[in-house]
Write a structure and sequence with these properties.
Shape: rod-shaped
InterPro entries: Flagellin (IPR001492), Flagellin_C (IPR046358), Flagellin_C_sub2 (IPR042187), Flagellin_N (IPR001029)
CATH class of the largest domain: Mainly Alpha
Distance between the termini: 15 Å
Order of helices and strands: HHHEEEEEHEEEHEEEHHHH
Number of domains: 3
CATH topology of the largest domain: f41 fragment of flagellin, N-terminal domain
Number of helices: 9
Function: Flagellin is the subunit protein which polymerizes to form the filaments of bacterial flagella.
Organism: Falsibacillus albus
Keywords: Bacterial flagellum, Cell projection, Cilium, Flagellum, Secreted
Largest sheet: 4 strands, antiparallel
Helix content: 40-55%
Family: Belongs to the bacterial flagellin family.
């Protein structure tokens, strides 16, 4: 009889160690909740899940970034909402001042409020900020080079430089009804200072009236560098570059020799729009919102200068009926600029809200994928732990039995 009890004990001991190690790993997974606690558990799975974790945290931070961006936009938009309210009040006062029931003192009182309101729009633009970042003073605008404003009134291609005023037609081909003896008054504002020029339609040569070029020449000077007509369009260029030189509220009023306003002619000659916007020269101060987990996933937002100086509503004059009429048009132009900027801010805010929803969805789905790789299946692992526990206990019992085998050899020695 060979003495092989050591072999049986060693085999049982090896099985016991294997079951104990397996049970220990199962307990580790159950206690941590992770299937992969170290690289040795699943080297490839660890690398993949860590990459996913980086993306998940990046997506979550991008969502918070987008929410911060919305907060900044709401700050700017809230300030512009107040600017809008002030502009509406200024327009109301300008309309009031246009009425000749007002005395000189009445208009002075109106002027005082207009001036204060313009100063408040300037203050809002200078001081509105988010996290110390200025929003409405032009610092948050994109990079621009200094440009000179150009205004264009597109009338009718049949109008040329030499077209006499009694032959002028609007863009629909209707004659403007200008006649000899009509008085034309041009008014405009530059940097809050109102300009005006008046001329009477008169004979230049026999049976001929002043031409369209002569009409434009009436506004030359006073901050206007050049005037021209091209294919019927009346073109006015500011004398100085930048927002301080822009022409605001340019309009023509035509009255007959009897003092009756000619609406069709006045409206047609005053139908100017900006074709080249006046810009100041400054570096890029726009904001890039990091709205993705990776490099380059950004959204750019620029906010234009919304101060009273740039809008042309600081120090507006309403002391006379003519000044009030010009002020109304200047305020209308300023209101349109503020509306356009608020519309842009609102559209970007809506975009960021959709971005947040998309980021949250992506993060949720990527988290689920990462969990399938990294997290333990609790039910399955509990089953494994129970199995390994039973095997460990059985191995311990068998090891005890194996250790009893030498007693059989001792019986042979008796």
């Amino acid at each position: 009889m060979r003495i092989n009890h050591n072999i049986a004990a060693l085999n049982t001991y090896r099985q016991l160690n294997s079951a104990s190690n397996a049970q220990s790993k199962s307990m580790e997974k159950l206690s941590s909740g992770l299937r992969i606690n170290r690289a040795g558990d699943d080297a490839a799975g660890l690398a993949i899940s860590e990459k996913m974790r980086g993306q998940i945290r990046g997506l979550d931070q991008a969502s918070r970034n987008s929410q911060d961006g919305i907060s900044m936009i709401q700050t700017a938009e809230g300030a512009l909402n107040e600017t809008h309210s002030i502009l509406q009040r200024m327009r109301e006062l300008a309309v009031q001042s246009s009425n000749d029931t007002n005395t000189t003192q009445d208009r002075k009182n109106i002027q005082d409020e207009i001036t204060q309101l313009g100063d408040e729009i300037q203050r809002i633009g200078d001081q509105t900020e988010f996290n110390t970042k200025k929003l409405l003073n032009g610092d948050a605008d994109g990079a621009t080079t200094s440009t000179t404003q150009v205004l264009t009134n597109n009338m009718n291609a049949s109008n040329a430089d030499g077209t006499t005023l009694d032959s002028l037609v609007d863009k629909d081909g209707n004659n403007l009804g200008l006649a000899n003896g009509d008085v034309v008054t041009a008014t405009w504002s530059i940097n809050g200072s109102q300009k005006s020029s008046t001329f009477t339609v008169s004979d230049i040569t026999s049976d001929s009236l002043s031409s369209i070029t002569d009409t434009l020449s009436a506004v030359a000077g006073g901050g206007v560098a050049s005037v021209a007509t091209t294919a019927g369009a009346m073109v006015v260029t500011a004398a100085n570059a930048g927002t301080s030189g822009q022409v605001n509220g340019l309009s023509f009023e035509v009255k007959s020799s009897a003092g009756v306003r000619k609406e069709a002619a006045s409206n047609a000659l005053s139908n100017f729009s900006t074709t080249t916007t006046a810009e100041n020269d400054h570096a890029d101060g726009s904001s890039n919102f990091q709205i993705g987990a990776n490099t380059g996933q950004t959204l750019n937002l620029s906010i234009k200068d919304m101060r009273a100086d740039t809008l042309g509503v600081r120090n507006l004059q309403v002391g006379t009926e003519s000044q009030s009429a010009t002020a109304i048009k200047v305020i209308d132009e300023a209101t349109q600029k503020v509306s356009a900027e608020r519309s842009k801010l609102g559209s970007v805010q809506n975009r960021l809200e959709h971005t947040i929803n998309n980021l949250n969805t992506s993060s949720e789905n990527l988290t689920a994928a990462e969990s399938r790789i990294r997290d333990v299946d609790m039910a399955k692992e509990m089953m494994n732990q129970t199995k390994n526990s039973i095997l460990s206990q059985a191995a311990q019992a068998m090891l005890a039995q194996a250790n009893q085998q030498p007693q059989g050899v001792l019986q042979l020695l008796r």
